Amino acid sequence: CTICTDERSWWMENIGGMDCDEWEYAFTTRCKHDADWRAAKWCQHSCFLNGAGYVGDNCCVQTMRAGDDCSGDDCDESRGDQAE
Asked: What's the whole-model pTM score?
């Protein structure tokens, strides 16, 4: 699996004030359904966990936000119930 981020779009961060895991609308109309979102992979982790992941993604259970450091034992790369 790959450590995926949950980076919000500019609108979500500056106008909507929403977090990726809270905005259910994104899972049905944004994420893999929207060309701009696909290009940027906004909310990559939350989209994946909610069945709207981007083509080729295989996200681990743990999410990271911009600026997080993932090194050594700090990262859990298990997929939990997401295993194939």
From this structure: 0.73
